[in-house]
């Protein structure tokens, strides 16, 4: 299948700082609303899930990626194509087990935490970037790669500051 | 004063859809938290204000704009430089009074409402894009152009759907 003509990517881009600061405001609002970090994390994941289910259609149309035949292939596409397309970065991928069904995406430079000096006091369990995990979960579910993702869950996404690597596992 | 060497603008950009959907999730969360539209509007403005106070430094460093000597000049810079830099669009500007201290920024194409089909029921007074008004307010306050902005307030920013023009007044 040939890839449809793309609109110039430039038209689909905005300044990163605006997004990063707006995201920070969102997390701050959730911290105000929910006392427990666990609840904030769940909410960010749920919110991300909704975003992922909507973004994936655009992703498939623009990336023209074909069907994947392994977890490893899926992970590589998330890291090299999706992250690059949406956040302008390419996480490195490591496989965590011999079954090759658990991976880490390691963001050496995470734009989402660029303005984060430290997490608020008493928020040490906050997964600041959990939205990203939710987005991946939602996007994968919508791709109907059921034979590959049937039992898939995504956890992780901790960020205790700008110097901490960001990780997302799926298995 | 010469403008410092810029980093390649591409590095500062991310996909617009990710921002637009995240912003939608933020507004939805606020609608859940606050019963009255007025309170949501206030919160978006307050949040935008905080973002504006942080963005403006980056804006001044990268845009190299000089001191403005009239409301009209300020408005043109907001429309032609700031909106273009951060949202990739250029609102048209109209002056609303003979004193030339009240303007409208009209966004014929507003990226923030791209995925908005309609506002939730009972939310007819919601200023969906009020974050933008807050950002402008915060940024102006931080520029210390006090002789021009001393009594300035920003209101407006209504969006009742994607087909409604976006306006921001300041006077």
From TrEMBL, chains A, B:
Subcellular location(s) of the protein: Endoplasmic reticulum; Golgi apparatus, cis-Golgi network
Pfam annotation, one family: TRAPP
GO cellular component: endoplasmic reticulum; Golgi apparatus; TRAPP complex
GO biological process: Golgi vesicle transport
Record function comment: May play a role in vesicular transport from endoplasmic reticulum to Golgi.
Protein name per Swiss-Prot or TrEMBL: Trafficking protein particle complex subunit
Signal peptide start and end residues: none
Keywords, comma-separated and alphabetical: Endoplasmic reticulum, ER-Golgi transport, Golgi apparatus, Lipoprotein, Palmitate, Transport
Top-level taxon of origin: Eukaryota
Gene3D superfamilies (UniProt xref): Trafficking protein particle complex subunit 3 (3.30.1380.20)
PANTHER family registered for this protein in UniProt: TRAFFICKING PROTEIN PARTICLE COMPLEX SUBUNIT 3
Organism: Equus caballus
């Amino acid at each position: 299948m040939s890839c449809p003509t793309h609109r110039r990517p430039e038209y689909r881009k905005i300044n990163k700082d605006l997004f990063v600061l707006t995201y920070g405001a969102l997390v701050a609002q959730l911290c105000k609303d929910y006392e427990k970090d666990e609840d904030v994390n769940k909410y960010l994941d749920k919110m991300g899930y909704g975003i992922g289910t909507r973004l994936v259609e655009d992703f498939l149309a623009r990336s023209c990626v074909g069907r994947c035949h392994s977890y490893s292939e899926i992970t590589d596409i998330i890291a090299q194509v999706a992250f690059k397309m949406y956040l302008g970065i390419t996480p490195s991928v490591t496989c965590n087990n011999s079954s090759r069904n658990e991976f880490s995406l390691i963001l050496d430079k995470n734009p989402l935490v660029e303005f984060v000096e430290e997490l608020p006091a008493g928020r040490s369990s906050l997964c600041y970037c959990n939205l990203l995990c939710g987005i991946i979960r939602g996007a994968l579910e919508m791709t109907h790669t059921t034979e590959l993702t049937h039992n898939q869950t995504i956890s992780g996404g901790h960020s205790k500051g700008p110097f901490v690597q960001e990780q997302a596992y799926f298995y």
